[in-house]
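seq as requested:
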Amino acid sequence: MLKEKEIWDKLYNLPVMFRWHMSRKEYPRAKACYDTARTVSVFLEIDEHGMQELFGERGERGAIISQGLFPEEQVQKAYLECIKANQTNECKPYPGIPKAV
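struct tokens:
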């Protein structure tokens, strides 16, 4: 079982890995880092300050107040490139379900 410090270390290593994958144009891996950080943060119920540090803060009408450790422009680029290459997990069919004729 991981201790609290080890969990935080792994969580704060994900933005570093995200930027590294983005620099190598490995968009699905970069997206996976971001998605993992989001999922773990929500599951652990990280406080507002921690969420803002990782993902940034937005104000009214979507104005960016502060940038997080995951640069939003790069996150959007990773998502867009994954969509273009059809490398997302959001719309994959489940195995064993027959296709409509």
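DSSP finds four helices and two strands in the chain.
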